[in-house]
Design brief:
14 helices, Beta-lactamase, alpha+beta, globular, about 400 residues, two-stranded antiparallel ribbon
């Protein structure tokens, strides 16, 4: 084989490599299906279409799926289909534990926002002051701010692109094993020495950036990201079945087991794949296990006041759009702090997605209409559009209900 052919093949592999991480700016942005126009007779009961959607989706995509919804009245509803795996066959429900991959970033970013609200850190702090003086930084790396790390606007790539990482990724395609060992180690900051910022300043999803954030948090506070999330987010919100060390949870033995789906490419769809375990700087980026009920409680804190002014300020900070700037409009993947916002007409959906090992996850919020949706699956599938579609349908139902309540025209 000629050298240029080898390079072409390597480039192809690298391209596929960039599409298989933990979590587009949302890793793969969900495309919402247009909701059907409500044609119900006023006063008739509303049979939620989700009852029809889930069984077929589970059969085609995942051994199990759990969906949780907060409606406009603040009421919670759950739907669950399938089992944890073919061996144990535990039925899933809202308390079944799932790995949620990059939803971890949302928790870590909000813990960081609490530290900012407390005055312990500042969004304008740069890596030059946030990292130890012994860490070598390029001129561009020195200027990266804390805000840029959490909004994926630092210019850092998804992960380091070197031969050891590529080798680990190729192994992953055949066995499903974790290929982020480098990002999980303290060696991750070495990648900053020769960083050169891209000319285009659009957001770039970066696991590397969040691994660096974990390192920063530990250096600045003496605590790892998971410990900060526990004390600043989980405890105030009473999230009891959420942990970055899930083996400590009583529900862990009955957790949903991850299965191959869209990834890994060379593992048969539906086969059990290994859980990804992190112990260092990737914990806060992708190590979280939680359930649907806890995620809805987390979502609810973004719809109403928690009663904690500092936490409320941090939450409001994370829900703001930071890119694009200067009143520009971006209908898809506008960058918040960890969150992303898509706009459909008058409806803004702020959301996160996660993909890791054999799992896919989604959390979406419509703050104006007071809706929230959580979708957890125990299969790695890029087809993660159910949450968006449900939020859009909920708005359609709300508008139909308002039409039914309106007085008839004279």
């Amino acid at each position: 084989m000629q050298p240029h052919c080898r390079l072409a093949g390597l480039s192809t592999l690298l391209l596929s490599f960039t599409l298989a991480g933990c979590g587009t700016l949302s890793n793969v942005a969900p495309e919402a299906e247009a909701p059907q126009k409500a044609q119900r007779v006023c006063g008739a009961s509303q049979a939620r279409d989700i009852n029809q959607w889930l069984p077929s989706m589970v059969e085609q995509q995942s051994p199990a799926m759990v969906v949780g919804v907060i409606d406009a009245n603040g009421q919670r509803h759950y739907w669950h289909f399938g089992v944890t795996d073919s061996e144990h066959q535990y039925p899933v429900d809202e308390h079944t534990l799932f790995a949620v991959g990059s939803l971890s970033k949302g928790m870590t970013a909000e813990a960081t926002a609490v530290l900012v609200a407390q005055g312990r850190l500042h969004w304008s702090d740069t890596l030059e002051t946030l990292l130890p003086p012994s860490v070598p930084l390029s001129d561009d790396a020195k200027k990266i701010t804390l805000l840029q790390l959490v909004t994926h606007t630092s210019g850092l790539p998804r992960q380091n692109m070197d031969l050891p990482m590529l080798t680990a990724f190729i192994r992953y395609l055949g066995n499903g094993e974790n290929f982020y060992a480098h990002l999980d180690s303290d060696d991750v900051v070495n990648d900053l020495a020769d960083f050169s910022k891209p000319h285009n300043d659009e957001p770039r999803y970066s696991n590397l950036g969040y691994a660096v954030l974990d390192y920063v948090l530990r250096y600045q506070t003496g605590q790892r990201a998971d410990q900060l999330v526990q004390s600043l987010i989980f405890e105030p919100l009473n999230l009891r079945n959420s942990s970055f060390t899930p083996q400590k949870l009583r529900s862990y033995p009955q957790r949903a087991i991850g299965h191959a789906g869209s990834q890994p490419k060379f593992v048969p769809r539906g086969q059990v794949v290994p859980d990804w375990q992190f112990h260092g700087n990737m914990l806060g980026a992708g190590g979280l296990y939680t359930d649907t009920a806890d995620l809805l409680t987390f979502a609810a804190a973004h719809l109403d006041s928690t009663g904690d002014q500092t936490l409320d300020k941090a939450i409001n900070d994370t829900m703001q759009i930071y890119y694009p700037r200067n009143n520009e409009r971006r209908d898809k993947e506008a960058a918040n702090i960890a969150w992303v916002t898509d706009t459909y007409g008058e409806q803004a959906i702020t959301y996160q997605v996660g993909y890791i090992g054999g799992y896919s996850s989604y959390i979406g919020i419509d703050r104006v209409n007071h809706f929230a949706v959580v979708v957890l699956q125990n299969s790695f599938t890029w087809q993660n559009n159910l949450g968006h579609s449900v939020l859009r349908q909920m708005l359609e139902e709300k508008q139909q209900a308002a039409t039914c309540r309106a007085p008839a025209a004279a």
